[in-house]
Amino acid sequence: MPRHAVIPSRVLIVISTVIVALVLLLASSVMAALDPVDVPAAVQVAEYEVRSGDNLWNIAGEHTSPGRDVRNTIEAIKRRNHLESSTIHPGQVLEIPLTGSS
To answer: Considering only CA atoms, which of 70, 62, 61, 67 is closest in space to residue 37?
Structure first.
C-alpha cells in the first residue's frame, strides 16, 4: 500500500497561524503608513510667506493639531510645494495643506 504524505494537524495550525500573523502585520503596516495628510483629496491650502528665521518645523508646527506628528505636516508641505529639501528662503510663498492638520 503506498504511503501518502500526511501533514500533522499541529504543523498545519502553526503554518496557518504564521500566515495570518504575516497578513495582519502587512495590513497594519499599510494602515500606519496612511495618514490623513497623505491621502490625496481636494486639499484646502493656506498660503504662507516665509520670513527671516522661519524653518519648516516651525511653520508645520503652527499648522499641526495637538497630538499629530509635525513630521507628517512637513512632508505634506514639501510634497505640495515640490521641495526636494527642507531649505526655504525669506519671501518664498508656500502652500500649506490644511487637511487633517488644524
So the answer is: 70
What pTM was computed for the model? 0.56
Return the closest-CA partner of residue 67 out of 25, 26, 36, 23: 36
Is the sign of the CA dihedral 94, 98, 75, 58 positive or negative?
Answer: positive
Q: How many domains does the chain have?
A: 1
Cell numbers standing for residue 30:
499599510
Q: Is residue 21 part of a domain?
A: no
pLDDT in tens, 17-45: 999 999 999 988 877 776 555 545 567 89
Query: Residue 83 contacts by C-beta under 8 Å, 6 or more apart in sequence?
Result: 77
Domain that holds residue 73: 45-97
Residue 82 lies in a domain: yes
CA distance 29 to 16: 20
C-alpha cell at 45: 491650502
- Gap between the Cα atoms of 91 and 51, Å rounded: 6
